[in-house]
């Protein structure tokens, strides 16, 4: 680890696009703890830590729980260690399928939101620009 560059939390927050508070929270719940600390106690993160935080950030909109995120990180660590058994790969495949399903759900929600926005644009284009809009009953 001595050859690896270490980054302070502010730099990590800017790089990943997470707040300092969120990064500290992920440390508190032992999701992504810093790899070290300065003599003054400032958190230090490796490039690998930054990638873990990016992955967590990507899992968040897919509504992964902290426990699910932790499990995915642990499974990836096991796979990276080079000694995984088939159950590790099977569990990762299960989480990949879950992520894909949640992506489909998000796409459907987005399509609905875009359809509503288009409808409102059309309606706004049909109404006169002056005077209050009448309510239909």
From TrEMBL:
<keyword id="KW-0175">Coiled coil</keyword>
<feature type="coiled-coil region">
    <location>
        <begin position="96"/>
        <end position="123"/>
    </location>
</feature>
<dbReference type="InterPro" id="IPR047057">
    <property type="entry name" value="MerR_fam"/>
</dbReference>
<feature type="domain" description="HTH merR-type">
    <location>
        <begin position="6"/>
        <end position="75"/>
    </location>
</feature>
<dbReference type="InterPro" id="IPR000551">
    <property type="entry name" value="MerR-type_HTH_dom"/>
</dbReference>
<dbReference type="InterPro" id="IPR009061">
    <property type="entry name" value="DNA-bd_dom_put_sf"/>
</dbReference>
<protein>
    <submittedName>
        <fullName>MerR family transcriptional regulator</fullName>
    </submittedName>
</protein>
<dbReference type="GO" id="GO:0003677">
    <property type="term" value="F:DNA binding"/>
</dbReference>
<dbReference type="GO" id="GO:0003700">
    <property type="term" value="F:DNA-binding transcription factor activity"/>
</dbReference>
<keyword id="KW-0238">DNA-binding</keyword>
<dbReference type="Pfam" id="PF13411">
    <property type="entry name" value="MerR_1"/>
</dbReference>
